[in-house]
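User: Show me an example of a complex going from sequences to structure tokens.

Assistant: Sure. Here are the input components:
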Amino acid sequence: MSAELDVAARVVELIRELAGREAEAEVVVRNEAEALTRFANSAIHQNVADVTTGVRLRLHTGGRTAGGSTTVTGPDGLRALVERTLAAARVSPPDASWAGLTRPAALHVSAGHPGSGEHSGLSFGFDEATAHADPADRAARVRDFVDAAGGLETAGYCRTVAVAAAFANTAGQAVEGRTVEAAMDGIARSGSASAGFADGVARLAASRLSGIDGAVLGARAAAKARAAGQPAELPPGSYEVVLEPDAVKDLLENLATFGFNGKAWVQRQSFAEPGRAQFDPAVTIVDEPLGSRAEPAPGLPFDDEGTPRRSLVLVRDGVTRAVTHDRTSAAEAGAESTGHASPYSRSWGPQATHLRLEASDTAVSTADGPAAIAASARPLVARVARGLLITDFWYTRVLDPKSLVVTGLTRNGVWLIENGEIVSAVGNVRFTQSYPQALGPGRVHGIGGESVLLPESWGRARYAAPALHLAGWNVTGNASG
Amino acid sequence: MTHFDEAGAAVQAALDAGARYADARVMVRRTEAMSARDGAVEDVGFDESAGIGVRALVGSGWGFYAVPDLSEPAARAAGRRAAEIAAASASVSGPPVGLVPAGAVVASWASDCVIDPLGVSLADKGDLLVRATTAAKEAGADLAEANYSVWDTRKWFVSSEGHRIDQHIRECGAGVTASAFGDGEIQRRSWPSWRGQFGTRGWELVEEIDLVGNAPRMAEEARALLTAPLCPSGETTLVLGGEQLALQIHESVGHAIELDRILGWEAAFAGTSWLDLSRLGSLRYGSELMNITIDPTFPGALGSFGFDDEGTPATKRHAVRDGIWVGVLAGRDSASVAGLDYAGSVRSDGWSRLPMVRMTNVGLEPGPHTLDEIIAATDDGVFMDVNRSWSIDDRRLNFQFGCEIGYEIKNGKRGRMLRNPTYTGIGPKFWQSMDMLSSETIAWGTPNCGKGQPGQIGHTGHPAAPARFTGVRVGVRG
């Protein structure tokens, strides 16, 4: 039994002692060790690490529910957590939507081998070296990134995260698991304050720090930055586009948050209509929390309600198949939980955090080509008569959740394509675009042959994204006004 | 019970391990939040977080380490670890790091609070949210949601320069939202703003905003918006309500004047700034009506404190005076790099996060008019209020905002309601077009400002009043 499961079991015992047999409760214990090295102006300027064990309790008694958490995990702290949560539950308003507890159920993984789920075909295990990486390991990758940028100014981060967690509830479910991740994300900057800067980006998530090569990423970011100088300005209009994986990540993130979110769907705030062909037939989107060849950095094998996680097909060949549920939204929908409960899912809805847009079987060119263009995007660029190559999106916000109309800007490299060739760099543009409409039937002209595993900048989600060739994208202005 | 001893032990351990400067912050935070939907409580949660974060400076490298263990041995170990991490930073080091001078401060500070928000019964709080959402539902909302949040934070700060400061900060707030579903679209109205109103105050703030009394109007307006005409597209005179102007200040001024962004320290993630330090004191940011202050002493606003997380006392200063850019949000190290002689705007969102440059209360000083006078003086334009969407480029120049509600203005009168109002512009051009400003200031709270890696949530305040802008592009559609 792990230390985390031991703590969870002790909390369950305390619940029995203090709240009686009729109380229903679930406990999540997470030990997280996160270390992150940030660099800017080509020097390390922040270097942080923390180790936290958090205990989260949700307790339902007398038809009333309350939740609580603490980082104070000694005997007194755990007892205080139970007492406080029990007292809160007793005076809380009635909870008519309580969906009960997860019954005992086995995980869909082999013990000790996250990523060995039945669909992954992989057994890459838990990388101890990443879990115990030290500041020098991260600094070495930063140094490689900086050096590979060849004198351009650089900024970004390198991080490692190790999580060991356990879940137990009063219905008898008791599971544990651990996972580890490494990620690097950086920009290189060409130009000057007087002439204007041009940024290029490179980022990657991995299941082990050894899978991240700072020199490769730094060279890629620098190539983009060098090719992005002296940008032209474009008039507003609808443009055919090739989106590189970093930009596609933003589509997946917004689809997960607003479209495939089971609570939003129950509340009629989502565009999703399972069974309908809402996307181009080329589009297949799968959530892979246990990892796969295209997403070899799995999450925990269970969610915050103890539901075993497994892969979930959200879109198959253009047809919407499912939305993500926790127990609450599933009960409202008359469905089963899909294992997407989080501390926030009752309020914000259950969200997929390991989405993968299936790459095509197009061979990725190994021939020389412009270094600024991702190799898997080059065949897509070659088919564009007139359009844009977009590296990355920035500050995207939803204007209407139902139609999922999003506004935002481009960042880190945009180019004009004519007759299959890059003809000039373009300044950043603002767009206003319905994401499902952009991926709708007949709108996807091509998908790249390689998925890139990308870290979420803010949280811990990971997205496996290929390049995309889309028929149209609404540019509504440019960043210089 | 204080935690100065543990913080002091951590600082000493960092110094013993080679640090030339160190500070440590013990934080104990209790939070409480509840949400309700359609007349029933949906979620109730209480969190408690306690730990120590240690910052160490070795040569020109910073290190930070944090643990949730408040024993002295753990604190000493954290101090040593912070120094080790700092030493590793020096392997890819930049220019020398200094700190603007600060005298040792020994002090206590507590925010004003009339009604302890954690002392109000859960039943009463739940009843408030249930009644607010029921009222909205009965008035025609398809979906009614309400929430409140409470933060009770105690901090003990010790530095190697002799600081010894404890603070007790209580914050809370609440809001209600009514949504109406139409054919393929959703309209939403929120009171007092989409996320609610928040302040460094007690529960009296929540009582003042009268969620239940305002909920029916929100539902009626959301339903009316479904059939209201679309906001016209074009260039016009724009009158903004105070809530939307608060976010305009936050996004296009507050973030732009963060010194770490200006110096490039946030270039990869949060972005940089269009501002160039060589023009501090001479750059025209906006019209002469534009006076922006950085004021953590503003009573009750969400960005208020006694001392920032480097121990610098709260002080009011101008960021923009009579339209000229004159000040930045700074920390002791960023100010030193920039050659400035002040700091005071560094905070973190918890013991496990590195303090960084954050907005405090960044607000617009009031003008001479009322909103009614501004509308009466406008022949042709649009009024917009309550933010619905926000987006701005990484240099904080090009913005596009959507609001929940708009009204046309014709011949000095407020006319028809307008659906999906949006406006776009470029920061300095927009602020230079401000030609009328109201005196009706409210300090709006933003409890969800994201910045930094690992991500941190900042609490910021924005005193703002309605204002008028000319020649603004509105009605942007894809």
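The lines above are the inputs; the final block is the predicted structure for all two components together. The longest helix of chain A spans residues 3-19.
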